[in-house]
Amino acid sequence: MLFSLGIVALLRTTKYLLPEFSHGVGKEFPYRPPLQSSRNLPIPPAIVPNRNRFLSSIAAAVFLLWLSDLQSPAGPEHVILISCDGLRPDAVELLGAKGAPHFYRLITEGSYTHNARTDADYTITLPNHTCMITGRGVKGGPGHGWVSNSTPKIGELLHRNKKAYLQSAFDVVHDHGLRTALFASKKKFVLYDLSYNERNGQADTEGADNGRDKINIYQLDELTDPLIIKFVMAMSREPFGFSMLHLRDCDSAGHGSGWDIANGTPYINAVVKVDRLIGHLLTLIEASPRLKDKTAMIVTADHGGRLSTKTHTKADEAKNYTIPFYVWGAGVHAGGDLYALNPGTRADPGEANPPHNAKSLPPVRNGDAGNLATFLLGLPPIKGSTINGKQNLKVAMPPPAK
Questions:
Q1: What angle, rounded to 10 degrees, do the helices at 266-287 and 51-69 form?
Q2: Can you give the pLDDT at residue 73?
Q3: Given its phi and psi angles, is residue 178 left (phi above 0), alpha (psi -120 to 50 degrees) or beta?
Q4: Pairing between strand 111-117 and 322-329?
Q5: Inter-residue contact 58 to 232 (CB < 8 Å)
Q6: What is the CATH number of the domain that holds 292?
Q7: Is the residue at 148 inside a domain?
Q8: What 3-state class would DSSP assign to 105?
Q9: What is the largest CA-CA distance in the chain?
């Protein structure tokens, strides 16, 4: 009862209107009716909360987590995969520890590289997010084959496009009995909900039958402040084994004003905002014994962007294909460089973006994320995956020799 009252109080502190739920109009983006998904949570009006109200909402949800922890046993390990759409690593470096304290916390307390890579052939959003969840590149026989970057039309699915089922990290985690979620800030991400729903998901053949619906919760909100609130609320109710969170802010600023990393530009201000949102998630994790020391975060991007442009489509431009990759939390080595931790399986590519079939060791890619998530959860790799298919991207120091 206390938990339920707390959720209502949290909604009211953000001026959400109850019970009149609807897809709302945000201040920053024109309203267009989104593609419906049978499992979208009810979405309140997308209001941009003021800072005090937003922080109060986060604090209320964290308090709910604390209350539930007094009566709940420790849950399973959790992995949160965060995609910072359009994030350039040199923007984080420009801001430094003072301007981006939470990104730098990921650096000092976790393992990272600022020289990771997108897909070898595409530097656009949906193809690279599909790499993340399937552990495949885009092109060729082993690739996932999805090259569109727009909201899917009726009937368009990953598997139909590939003419074969594409297993994902959602499949692996769900089929082993853990809850999954996708919280997205762009409508086009409905592609994944439609591809892995109760109609189009593959039958579960791993132990108990957990059904075909591989993504338990799909949530869309084009404004990332309320999206984070919804994510915190959902984790407060029942933490996910694997969740993917998409934050659009850097990409929106880049398309609007260019990928200008100078102080005070819209783009650098968006990076500061994303840093703040990640800080709220760190607070969430540390506030609850159910999550603290049992949760890992993987933070990466789908592409960067060039200074003089408002696009990122040229896949041969280093500023487009150079991205960050951070891993933080349970089981992760503090202060580790991912290339130094993986001398036998990964190689720093310098300025290049080598093809997937190169004879040299591959770079760290955003496509490593899916199999890293399943590895951290103690689960097998994604079937058919070619990126980190051996789950050999290490984020912890090996034990000392006896």
A1: 20
A2: 31
A3: beta
A4: antiparallel
A5: yes
A6: 3.40.720.10
A7: yes
A8: helix
A9: 63
First to last CA, the chain: 53
- SS3 label, residue 166: coil
Q: Which residues does the chain have with pLDDT short of 50? A: 1-49, 62, 64-76
Instruction: Identify residue 29 by its one-letter amino acid code.
Output: F
Domain that holds residue 292: 78-376
The answer to whether the beta carbons of residues 240 and 217 sit under 8 Å apart is: yes
3-state SS, one letter per residue, for 206-266: CCCCCCCCCCCEEEECCCHHHHHHHHHHHHHHCCCCEEEEEECHHHHHHHHHCCCCCCCCH
What is the spatial distance between Cα 136 and Cα 40, in angstroms, rounded to a whole number? 27
Q: Over the stretch 259-313, which tens digit does the pLDDT of each residue have?
A: 999 999 999 999 999 999 999 999 999 998 889 999 999 999 999 999 888 999 9
Total count of domains within the chain = 1
* pLDDT tens-digit map of 302-323: 999 998 889 999 999 999 999 9
Question: Is residue 203 situated within a structural domain?
Answer: yes
Residue type, 99: G
pLDDT at 27: 28
Contact indicator for 149, 163 with CB cutoff of 8 Å: no
Residue 113 lies in a domain: yes
CA–CA dist 369, 378 (Å, integer): 14
Of 80, 78, 79, 83, residue with least CA distance to 366? 83
Per-residue burial over 233-259, b if 16 or more Cβ lie within 10 Å, else e, is: bbbbeebbbbbbbbbbbbbbbbbeebb
| Those residues with Cβ within 8 angstroms of residue 325's Cβ, 6 or more apart along the chain or in another chain | 112, 113, 116, 298, 299, 300, 338, 364, 366, 368, 369
Question: Is residue 401 in a domain?
Answer: no
